[in-house]
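Below is a filled-in request sheet from our internal design queue. Each sheet records the structural input a requester submitted and the sequence that came back. We keep these sheets so that new team members can see what a complete request looks like end to end.

REQUESTER: design group, bay 2
PRIORITY: normal
MODE: inverse folding
CHAIN LENGTH: 477
BACKBONE (tokenized):
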């Protein structure tokens, strides 16, 4: 027994994580349901480090030094339960099972509780960065016991991405499902970021009249400023790519129906349960689902729209600058909503998540990595109980500076009939938060009228009901 860690499930993610551990000097036990994958890994990459391949689960477990660290990288859902049930009986108290798949945090809570009762630490771990990240350094979001992090953390810190200041992009997020919860919201924010970038692209194309190649250049310029991020960078790459078969821009030959695997949807479902307004993330999920309704879209093609009024060359440049402002302001709002969901989840489940640390470990390795996250970390470090990112003075000032352009962009989008659900939802959230009075007062009046649901008054405590069907006098409820 000489392996410090074992990985079972050697598809793209597991294979690359195993190699990452080995490249960092650890002996890695290997296992996969189909043994061919295990042997292929050793054949192709055996020279990269120390691997201990095993075919039988018993041999795999026996190869691990104690306390055992057994990482599962299989398909999320039922396969993860099956693999846990296969290995748990072979483990001893104090051993660890690390699930690095995209599990739902509620499943992680259930599994953690069950294994804790059997003396085994269960570390539900969010991992972001895709295939490349897994190999060269992902952002890692482990949940589970403090004790398990003490044993596993140093190894994760070795294989994780490093932020520019050298900090590893991993931290103990909190107990049981905390890690997978944070990974879920990470993905929700990723959906929102992608949707906002998509809207910026569509506006630059349809309103400003730029070609995909020109838009790629605009994104490259933006990527040298405050929008500096992985997603902006790859957007420029995708937009400048030419399809070999047709010679057309790649983006024009791809079907415009976005797919999804579910983590964005979970973020919204859980936000609904927790009562957290994540309107930008929700719009991003809905935008993907709308794009897939081809029959509905086909049937709607004849619907009337405004007359196109293309901008002049000179106007287009100024418009592009405005779109940058709108994108940046909307991005602040999506992160505000995402961090609100994490803060609320943390409270609901008693996780005590450090929001500044979350921003810190998203600075490298993961899909939403961005220069901007440094600033979010600074905001939470300065004030850990910040009620909302929008309460941070710097972000508030930046939005204040961007808002005129943000509004102008939405005026142009509306006038020219370009759908911008992400930008619009972000601005609506911002304006609603700013508002002195919301129409919610009227909503309460309506609810009291038809259902005697009662209301509270601004001028004295208590709950009240108006006798709408009678003399309309007010009674204390
Ligand atoms: P897949 O999700 O495609 O899963 C394939 C692996 O699961 C194979 O090793 C397969 O074994 C194993 N497996 C499936 N069902 C069972 C079962 N019933 N019993 C035992 N083993 C089973 O692999 P990925 O590498 O793409 O992803 C692994 C995990 O990481 C997933 O949970 C995924 O959501 C998550 N993830 C993926 C990312 C990505 O970019 N791909 C990013 C971050 C997380 P066999 O070879 O025998 O079929």
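RETURNED SEQUENCE:
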């Amino acid at each position: 027994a000489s392996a410090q860690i074992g990985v079972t499930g050697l598809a793209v993610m597991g294979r690359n994580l195993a190699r990452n551990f080995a490249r960092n000097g650890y002996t890695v036990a290997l296992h996969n349901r189909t043994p061919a994958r295990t042997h292929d890994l050793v054949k192709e990459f055996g020279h990269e480090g120390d691997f201990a391949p095993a075919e039988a689960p018993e041999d795999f477990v026996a190869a691990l030094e104690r306390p055992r660290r057994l990482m599962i990288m299989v398909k999320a859902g039922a396969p993860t339960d099956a693999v846990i049930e296969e290995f748990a009986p072979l483990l001893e108290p104090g051993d660890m099972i690390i699930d690095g798949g995209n599990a739902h945090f509620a499943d992680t809570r259930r599994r953690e509780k069950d294994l804790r009762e059997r003396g085994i630490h269960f570390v539900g771990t969010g991992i972001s960065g895709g295939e490349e990240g897994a190999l060269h350094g992902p952002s890692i979001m482990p949940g589970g016991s403090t004790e398990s992090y003490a044993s596993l953390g140093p190894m994760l810190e070795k294989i994780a991405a490093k932020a520019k200041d050298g900090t590893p992009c991993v931290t103990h997020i909190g107990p049981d499902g905390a890690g997978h919860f944070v990974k879920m919201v990470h993905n929700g924010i990723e959906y929102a970021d992608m949707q906002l970038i998509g809207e910026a692209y569509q506006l630059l194309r349809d309103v400003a009249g730029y070609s995909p190649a020109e838009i790629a250049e605009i994104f490259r310029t933006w990527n040298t400023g405050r929008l500096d991020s992985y997603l902006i960078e790859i957007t420029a790459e995708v937009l400048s790519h030419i399809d070999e078969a047709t010679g057309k821009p790649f983006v024009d030959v791809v079907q415009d129906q976005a797919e999804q695997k579910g983590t964005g949807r979970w973020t919204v479902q859980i936000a609904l349960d927790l009562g957290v307004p994540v309107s930008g993330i929700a719009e991003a999920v809905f935008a993907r689902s709308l794009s897939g309704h081809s029959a509905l879209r086909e049937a709607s093609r004849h619907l009337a729209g405004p007359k196109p009024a293309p901008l002049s060359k000179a106007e287009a440049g100024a418009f592009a600058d405005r779109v940058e402002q709108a994108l940046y302001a909307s991005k602040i709002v999506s992160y505000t909503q995402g961090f609100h969901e994490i803060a609320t989840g943390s409270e609901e489940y008693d996780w005590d998540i450090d929001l500044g640390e979350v921003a810190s470990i998203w600075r490298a390795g993961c899909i939403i990595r961005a220069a901007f996250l440094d600033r979010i970390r600074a905001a939470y470090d300065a004030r850990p109980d910040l009620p909302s990112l929008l309460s941070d003075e710097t972000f508030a000032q930046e939005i204040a500076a961007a808002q005129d352009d943000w509004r102008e962009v939405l005026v142009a989008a509306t006038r020219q009939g370009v759908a911008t659900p992400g930008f619009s939802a972000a601005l609506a959230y911002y304006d609603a938060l700013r508002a002195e009075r919301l129409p919610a007062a009227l909503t309460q009046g309506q609810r009291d009228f038809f259902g005697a649901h009662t209301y509270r008054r601004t001028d004295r405590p208590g709950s009240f009901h108006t006798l709408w069907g009678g003399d309309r006098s007010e009674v204390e409820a």
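SHEET NOTES:
- Residues 9-14, 32-34, 37, 73-76, 79, 82-83, 100-102, 127, 130-131 surround NDP (CB under 6 Å).
- The CA atoms of residues 339 and 355 lie 7 Å apart.
FILED BY: M.R.
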